[in-house]
């Protein structure tokens, strides 16, 4: 993606611009994502230095695991970002992007932890890890 992508939380208190190329969307079915969001996560990612966030005072952070931090709007609760501790990329929840996104999904990860109430039948590659 060559143009900047923009997005925001549900209430608009936090918005962002991704100025670098976005990775294809990955669907994460891990238990942590499921419990935090209520279902699997659809996320893209960008380099940390290519993400500009406005309304950062409204951005709350929670260390989901020893290896990852989740960021969300402290007003409306919208999940916006996931970042591996010390990582050089930040995942962006695909549903928070403004349309059109110009990106497509290309895989499912951590499928061994997926909910038992749905099947994955879209033909995309599946992995039990990242």
From TrEMBL:
<protein>
    <submittedName>
        <fullName>GFA family protein</fullName>
    </submittedName>
</protein>
<dbReference type="Pfam" id="PF04828">
    <property type="entry name" value="GFA"/>
</dbReference>
<dbReference type="InterPro" id="IPR011057">
    <property type="entry name" value="Mss4-like_sf"/>
</dbReference>
<keyword id="KW-0456">Lyase</keyword>
<dbReference type="InterPro" id="IPR006913">
    <property type="entry name" value="CENP-V/GFA"/>
</dbReference>
<comment type="similarity">
    <text>Belongs to the Gfa family.</text>
</comment>
<dbReference type="GO" id="GO:0046872">
    <property type="term" value="F:metal ion binding"/>
</dbReference>
<feature type="domain" description="CENP-V/GFA">
    <location>
        <begin position="5"/>
        <end position="119"/>
    </location>
</feature>
<dbReference type="GO" id="GO:0016846">
    <property type="term" value="F:carbon-sulfur lyase activity"/>
</dbReference>
<keyword id="KW-0479">Metal-binding</keyword>
<keyword id="KW-0862">Zinc</keyword>
């Amino acid at each position: 993606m060559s143009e900047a992508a923009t997005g925001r939380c549900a209430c608009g208190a936090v918005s962002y611009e991704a100025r670098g190329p976005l990775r294809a969307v990955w669907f994460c079915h891990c238990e942590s994502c499921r419990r935090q969001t209520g279902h699997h996560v659809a996320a893209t990612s960008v380099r940390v230095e290519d993400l500009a966030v406005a309304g950062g005072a409204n951005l709350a952070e929670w260390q989901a695991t020893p290896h990852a931090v989740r960021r969300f709007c402290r007003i409306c609760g919208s999940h916006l970002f996931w970042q591996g501790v010390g990582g050089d990329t930040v995942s962006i929840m695909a549903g928070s992007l403004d349309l059109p996104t110009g990106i497509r999904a290309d895989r499912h990860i951590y499928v061994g932890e997926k909910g038992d109430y749905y099947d994955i039948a879209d033909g995309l590659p599946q992995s039990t890890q990242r």
